[in-house]
Amino acid sequence: MKRVAKFLGLAAGDRGLLLEAALLLLAARAALRLFPFRWIVRAVSRPPAIRQLDEIAAQALVRRVSWAVRAGARHGIGRAVCFPQGIVAQVMLARRGISCTLHYGVAKSPQGELEAHVWVRAGACAVVGCESADRFTPLVSFPRRTSDAFPAGQVR
Fold this sequence. Notes:
It is a single chain. It is built from five helices and four strands, in the order αααααββββ. By secondary structure, it is of the alpha+beta class. The chain has one domain. The protein has a four-stranded antiparallel beta sheet with strand order 3-2-1-4. Helix 2 crosses helix 4.
């Protein structure tokens, strides 16, 4: 009941964003089980329509999407690890006209096992998974074109 009360206490825009993230997390988890990786990457790596936003507004939108994806992963149905979170963050940002890059990397665990991790950045902004990204060697990024900063006057 506390979760419901907390959800209802959110602003309408935040409730919508959180609900979108939670539903997309379920869809991303299902897609990862049902479809080949290359299909998923192709579907989520389409460039977004260019939207006129100043850098401050774009960063605020990135922070809101980041919050929604993390909260949806924490409180949603099932367990959404880094890969579905990365897919959802990329989809939600693209829908809002903001370019971001999903990075896929690997590292060896202390026990010598191979670990994989996904993280998403929008320009210089950390979106999801970035807090532990330094441990991982990047293998590939999607989309393959990247930008280190938001273009002046617009966000891709």
